[in-house]
Amino acid sequence: IDPPRVVVGQRSTLRIDVLAPNYMTSPPELPGFQVRNAVTRQFQSVNRSEQRTGTSYAGVRFAFAIYPQEPGAFAISDQKVKVKYAAEPPAVREEEIALPRVSFEAFIPDAAADLNPFLAASQLTLEQSVQRSSDPFKVGDSITRTVTIQAEETPADEPGRA
Predict the structure, then answer these.
(1) pLDDT by residue (tens digit) across 5-43?
(2) For 26, which DSSP code?
């Protein structure tokens, strides 16, 4: 998981590589990695292949964006992946693999501790526009002020690539 310490509302990315000897006969079955008090979204998976000590492995890299919604310690444990592969074709083997426990921490920066609500974003843009009912402005005319706030990489945004 990267990074292992994030600001509340910002992303920590869980990456999982699933490799099997030879090739997989169907996509691996993964849990949803739902974490209490966090928003989890899956990125697009990427196919992989590797050679290790003369054996070819095929697999998939999965990535999940996890946005903690409150400060504290978070853990992902007791999760399993089901893999079907052809180690010795045409015979198919099925394995259920326990994933190691991973954890990360979320915090609110000291300078923002009194903000209610606290909103984390990688970039914040404020714009304003003012419209007058006439020019020059005179007594009884109206004025409209519009303030637009745009925040990037908040949990409501669609996450980018892993």
Answers:
(1) 999 999 999 999 999 998 999 999 999 888 999 999 999
(2) S
Beta strands at 5-7 and 102-107: parallel, antiparallel or unpaired:
parallel
**Per residue, what are the HEC states of 118-152?**
CCCCCEEEEEEEEEECCCCCCCCCCEEEEEEEEEE
Model pTM score: 0.77
Report d(CA 40, CA 76) in Å as an integer: 12
pLDDT beneath 70, residues of the chain = 155-162
Name beta bridge partners: 97.
81
Dihedral sign of CA atoms 133, 134, 136, 140 in order: negative
**Which among 22, 16, 26, 27 is positioned nearest to 50, based on CA atoms?**
22
